[in-house]
Amino acid sequence: MDLSNLSRPEKVTAGGGAMLLVAGFLPWYSFGGFGGLNGWSSGFPAWGGILAGLAGAGILIAPKLGGKDVSTASLARPQLAVVLTGLGSLLIVFRFITESTLTSFGIFAGLAGSVLATYGSFQAMRAAGLELPVGEVRERFTQGSTTSDVENPSEDGDG
Questions:
Q1: Does the pLDDT of residue 63 top 60, yes or no?
Q2: CA 20 to 30 Å from 153, out of 63, 77, 90, 140?
């Protein structure tokens, strides 16, 4: 495994992913002397965020480390990585907002790792000359509606 093949943004993403993986096993919630919950035991927003962040980081760096190149029909590999790592960050933030009592250091390490992975994958996407396909997504969701209704309001003169 030769990490010299990775660009700086990919190294940032890999570091964030590694931090996120370790944080998943740290205590996210503690109950005094009665133990606590790690990231994998803290509900779907926690473990879902960890998995999404790890998947995004893995998709971005795997081809440079000898793995397969993954992309979708409409998203390039760095764009897919941004979507997944961003989703992971949002889920972990949601976990923190919905249950912020009795938190321990693991949730903060998980949040830092997921944000770092998102930032690195976003920088890798920008370095590849790509943008988030917001317009394409908007088009896909609005293909069923016609724009003529918006462009030509009622022709009876009351609009």
A1: yes
A2: 140
Cβ contact 53:17 at 8 Å:
yes
- Find out whether 117 and 13 touch, Cβ atoms under 8 Å: yes
Give the amino acid at 25: F
Number of H helices, E strands in the chain: 6, 2
- Of 69 and 84, the structure prediction assigns the larger pLDDT to 84
Is residue 3, in this structure, part of any structural domain at all? no
Strands 27-30 and 36-38: antiparallel
In a domain, 54, yes or no: yes
What Å distances lie between residue 104 and 36, 78, 100, CA to CA?
A: 9, 32, 10
Q: Is residue 116 situated within a structural domain?
A: yes
Over residues 12-61, the pLDDT tens digits come to 999 999 999 999 999 999 887 677 888 899 889 999 999 999 999 999 99
Neighbours of 15 (CB within 10 A): 15
How far is the first Cα of the chain from the last one, in angstroms, to the nearest whole number?
65
105 within some domain: yes
Per-residue pLDDT at 145: 56
Reading the block at residue 92, the tokens are 């972990």
